Amino acid sequence: MERFLDMHMYVTSALQKTDMKAVGLQLALDLLHEKEKRDLITGLKTRTNAGRPNWNKIFQIIADQKKGKVTVFYCGPPALARLLKIKCDEFGFTFRKGIF
Hints:
Keywords: Oxidoreductase. The chain is an alpha/beta fold. Helix content is 38%, strand content 12%. The chain is built from three helices and four strands; from the N terminus they run βαβαβαβ. Strands 1-2 form a two-stranded parallel sheet.
């Protein structure tokens, strides 16, 4: 059965994999994820990414898969909601946000 939900988890305050100060930590997290098939931070199968996401790259990969209608669900700061709404419009995705 194909997945109908794809989660992308980011710790935006963490250093990215390309930052030399974080290389050791990122390598250790990658090795643990490979061995345990779970993310050390969340316990989910999806690996948590460090740093800020490249929305154009992520959305392009999803669009290239041509798996049908894509809906982006978001809950968080309004500034990022505005950016994601613009990106969703560019790629033809539906945007939904939750407010608590």
